[in-house]
Amino acid sequence: MPSADQPPLPPVDRIPSDVVAADDYRQAARRHLDDNAWAYLQGGAADELTLDDNVEAFRQIHLLPQPLNDVRGGHTRLRLFGRDYAHPILLAPVAYQRLFHPAGEMATVLGAGAMQAGMVVSSLATCRLEEIAAQAEAPLWFQLYWQGSRAASLELVRRAEAAGYAVLVLTVDAAVFGVRNREQRAGFALPAGIAAVNLAAGANAGLSGTGGANVFDRLMTTAPHWDDVAWLVEHSRLPVVLKGILHPQDARRAVEAGVQGLVVSNHGGRTLDTTPASIDILPAIKTVVGADFPLLLDGGIRRGSDIFKALALGASAVLVGRPYVHALATAGALGVAHLLRLLREELEITMALCGARDLAALDAQFLLNPP
Ligand SMILES: Cc1cc2nc3c(=O)[nH]c(=O)nc-3n(C[C@H](O)[C@H](O)[C@H](O)COP(=O)(O)O)c2cc1C
Prior knowledge:
The chain has 371 residues and is α/β, with parallel strands linked by helices. The protein has helices at residues 22-32, 35-42, 49-59, 105-114, 129-135, 150-162, 181-186, 212-218, 226-235, 248-256, 278-289, 304-312, 322-354; strands spanning 78-80, 83-85, 89-91, 119-121, 140-144, 167-171, 240-245, 261-264, 295-298, 317-320.
């Protein structure tokens, strides 16, 4: 672990020989990041109960294999929003990636491309969204934080459209910062020179403020509402996906507003503590949106078997957050590609051993105790 006399190690330019699973990258990354970046990356809201539940909930679900099924010719391909994907693993939007690697999102997009993985680029990226797009070899999605007004939000949307992004993901669960006690205890601050370069100067300034009047009278006045969602659907040339939906009634409203996909997510446990683990609420949302509606999930995916469980419970695909950042901090683009390969191989092995030939075959019959 880095300390005052032992600074963090720079990222390596090879795949570390002792990394065979996502959790190995977590342990490796600790040696490559200082306390400041580590608190920001690993932390959750308040007592971090949801953060832990996201991982624990997957452990509580057991697989029930049907090993004699014929899986010859099997594959992990899927189609989402009119595009083909080799596998159902996307990189979740993660802000400020130059905190974790000098090349930031430019390294991540290379790793994603090598494994043909979709990547969701954060509004708070530290590289220009056009430059990231120029390096992309797999579909990029753009994650939008509402910019306080329709005009300012549309400006970002138009840039993403022009740069060739395929999907627009509006994150709705983080209008204000959560109670980030771990970051507060570590005294987290963005280092000089690391900034959200795609936003107008000063945008989102002051989001970390807490206290009643500040939150309700100032910050929440610029948060998006349902009429803004309908407006965005009408004005975006890209399919609009809402990220951060947990309530089945919100899922229903989103479908009614013309939203074309949802990400069931609690923001990796970073915003509101004691919300349910994403996987625990997924079946209730699936029931509302129906079989063919694109439904994604993130939070706590650490193994290919977790991806299998999410898809068996109705997700079309999953997003992975912290694990690829661990890989990025350890070994840059190579690490990101390697992490994706590990997860994909684990998913394929799980499918083969369970007796599922393709993603369409996955359902709750492969699970002993679904939530
Ligand atoms: C360091 C960090 C920064 C994040 N930044 C964003 C962001 O800018 N926009 C967003 O929608 N979600 C953001 N998230 C949430 C992730 O997209 C995702 O929901 C979450 O990490 C999934 O959980 P996991 O880390 O357990 O895989 C961030 C998560 C982390 C860990």
